[in-house]
TrEMBL record:
It is a multi-pass membrane protein. GO terms for cellular component: membrane. One of its GO terms (biological process) is lipid metabolic process. It comes from Protea cynaroides. The keyword Amino-acid biosynthesis does not apply. GO terms for molecular function: O-acyltransferase activity. Residues 189-275 form the Wax synthase domain. Its main location: membrane. It is found in: Membrane. This is Wax synthase domain-containing protein. Keywords: Acyltransferase, Membrane, Transferase, Transmembrane, Transmembrane helix. The chain crosses the membrane at residues 7-26, 126-146, 158-184, 237-261, 267-287, 299-318.
Amino acid sequence: MEDEIKSFIHVWVAAITSLFYCYFIAAKIPNGKLRFLSLLPVFYLFILLPFKLSSFHLGAPTFFYLTWLANFKLLLFSFDQPPLSLSTKPTPSLLHFISIASLPIKIKQHPNSNPSQILKTKENPYLSPLILVCKALFFALVIRIYEYKTQLHPIVLLALYCCHTYLGLEIFLAIGASLARAFLGQELEPQFDEPYLSTSLQDFWGRRWNLMVTSILRPTVYNPIRSISTSILGRKWALLPAMLATFLVSGLMHEFIYFYLTGVSPTWEVTWFFVLHGICTAMEVVIKKVSMGRFQLHRAVSGPLTVGFVALTGYWLFFPQLIRNHVDDRAISEYSVLAIFVKNKVLLFN
């Protein structure tokens, strides 16, 4: 455990040092191809760094933060696009640049808003922490239930996997956001918006699930493809290929994450999961456009259908590769290792 923590520190020191280079040197290079070329070593380094970590709970977030989010943000930075653009006013500080580049956060913007309007978004400052604590307790219960995994009905097991994925992601992303909020002192965009309340696939993927990924895929994949498609298909239907391309890229990035977690050759199941959802979401959009909103199920029906579809297709295509390679067991076992490590450290200081 100690060796893994040392490796984790080394990885992040290297990552932050690379971001110093981006801020002080690469930023001075004209944006476009030249800046992109100057950042290629950083892209490559951010792909390799997570492979120095073997634990699930340190390696997987690092891979997600650096290999996916940071690299995509730096790709936009190559062309002086937000969120890392240094041409915006006021110019982001080094701390802002490093935090936004390396963490799954997005600073909330309040265009044309006065302070009283901004305060309205903070009516109950204790609600979110309270909900997060409740979710953390429920997450602990989910981890505990894993001890009886072999005795559980497949439907209960599916619910367990779904809860583990959602709660684990939200809690770990919230930890990163809390660190950033403490350092930056600014309000951040939400990372999730209660995805279990989704009423459609478009609602689930576009407005509720892992919004940091949505916010980075939109400018890097969706907007360029939609812009290109507009001249061919027209504005009304250009969003369809853009949507499909976005889901495909998301699937490929998840495939890369699975390769990192399992160390086995890709099976493309998780890619097909996202391709399937891209097709279904596109069909949903077409139906809405053709029917002009007349065909709309009540949320009491559409909600369970949406969540059920995500869960069942996840059981079919999203989870199998992780289960076959015992990634879930490895993740659960790390909690015991962490508990022993903390206990030993506490005893050492007593």
